[in-house]
Specification:
It is built from nine helices and ten strands. About 25% of the residues are buried. The protein folds into two domains: about 150 residues, 3-Layer(aba) Sandwich (Alpha/beta knot), CATH 3.40.1280; about 80 residues, tRNA(m1g37)methyltransferase, domain 2 (Trp Operon Repressor, Chain A). The chain is an alpha/beta fold.
Amino acid sequence: MKIDILTLFPAMFEGVMQSSIMKKAQEQGAFQYRTIDFRAYAENKHQKVDDYPYGGGAGMVLMPQPIFSAVEDIKQNVSNSPRIILMCPQGERYTQKKAEELAKEDHLIFICGHYEGYDERIREHLVTDEISIGDYVLTGGELGAMIVIDSVVRLLPNALGNQESAQQDSFSTGLLEHPHYTRPANFRGYQVPDILRSGHHEKIAEWRHKTSLRRTMERRPDLLQDYPLTEQERAWLQEDDQN
């Protein structure tokens, strides 16, 4: 996968992209990225990328020309049609399902804004997706883009040492993930459940499924509204209600 990031602050991405899984994923050839300061595409002599909004109001608005020119320059050198993602609090709420969708693409372009907002023509005539990571406002789109990129990259082949890790994560199955334990089996009197030390793989899988379902019901019951419960899962939930 190729990832291009349009930003006024390229240095913000260095720590994230050169650390942990992101760094390993690049070394494994899962993806490559570059940051592009779209200020370089401004056609005015002061490389100005923002201006006052028509009609008045507080703040500055990003001008369309530098961003259009930057995206058009990127697309000149590729044969496919990249997804062009605008990081914006007005966009669709980001989910694991969206991450899985984007992970199937060959090329992503992220636009990270600052200031009061974007010229509306960027939304209407340039981008393919608008994404929000939550109902709050950040200083710019860089942090949101980092979150989206991280969640997408870890789904790519060869990005993780064990690909099953991504498949079993919370939200990937539609449920929250089951509890995890490691050594020691007894820590200050707190015991690891016996079933996990039994060696009985079928029973362990059943325990993990039941606890995943129970945890979802307790913490995020909204996730079960669209989850296709099996008869067995319904029976487990009824057992919990009776207990």
